[in-house]
Design goal:
By secondary structure, this protein is an alpha/beta fold. It is 38% helix and 20% strand. The protein has eight helices and twelve strands. Helix 1 links the parallel strand 1 and strand 2. Helix 1 crosses helix 5. The relative contact order is 0.11.
Length: 229
């Protein structure tokens, strides 16, 4: 079945432009002019990805993204922020709120379609053969279940955070550079933003709580995971 993309923007021309180009790329689309219509749509539909404007007439896109990522039902739902706010601070804030990508207007419709494809492909995690990966005594990953336990309690991670943790946990003690991590998460479609990896690592540490200290920063190089805190 074709993937369903929801476009949330109060500019009719943008809604039409994005919808037409995504449909040409083989996706189904639904258009919402504001935050309220998105909430109504989500009551009866489960999209595969949301393209979200930040400046809506009835809501702030950052708040919508934060609420979605805080809800277990929508935590793994990818969100691309599409906005005229192009400052680095806004980009970082979007990532901190859980956005999977951030595109600034004016934009290339072909680039947007490529970003959508990359994110949906990233969400399809590769098959694994191990049932679990243990880090120390209190952090356990179940790859096939997409589950992470900290002291036997589930940690609610986004797909990006889970994939990042899997990368590091797959080779304990191995230092991955920021570029290697970016390539693993986004491939050729990666966001060129120096702090992208740092933001995701910080979010991951926060969600892992006491087990976050297994993640080590190697200054000037990148990150690794150790089996001891």
């Amino acid at each position: 079945m074709e993937k369903l993309i929801v476009i949330v923007d109060d500019e009719p021309d943008i809604l039409e432009l994005v919808a037409i180009n995504l449909q040409k790329a083989g996706y189904r689309t639904a258009e919402c002019p504001d935050g309220a219509s998105l909430q109504e749509f989500l009551k009866n539909n489960r999209p595969d990805l949301i393209i979200l404007d930040l400046m809506l007439p009835d809501a702030d896109g950052f708040d919508i993204c934060r609420q979605l990522k805080a809800d277990a039902q929508y935590r793994d739902l990818p969100v691309i922020m599409l906005t005229a706010k192009g400052d680095v601070t806004d980009r970082i804030l979007g990532l901190e709120f859980g956005a999977d990508d951030y595109i600034v207007k004016p934009f290339s419709p072909r680039e947007l379609a490529a970003r959508v494809k990359a994110i949906l492909r990233r969400g399809q995690l590769p098959s694994v053969t191990v049932d679990s990966i243990s880090i120390g005594r209190d952090l356990i990953l179940h790859p096939q279940k997409h589950e992470v336990l900290v002291n036997s309690q589930p940690a609610e991670l986004t797909t990006t955070e889970f994939k990042l943790l899997m990368l590091l946990a797959g080779r304990p003690g191995w230092v991955f550079t920021r570029n290697q991590i970016l390539d693993h998460l986004w491939g050729n479609d990666k966001i060129v933003l120096d702090r992208t990896v740092d933001v995701h690592i910080r979010n991951l540490r926060d969600k892992l709580g006491s087990a976050g200290s297994y993640l080590k920063n190697i200054r000037g190089v990148g990150y690794k995971i150790e089996t001891e805190k």
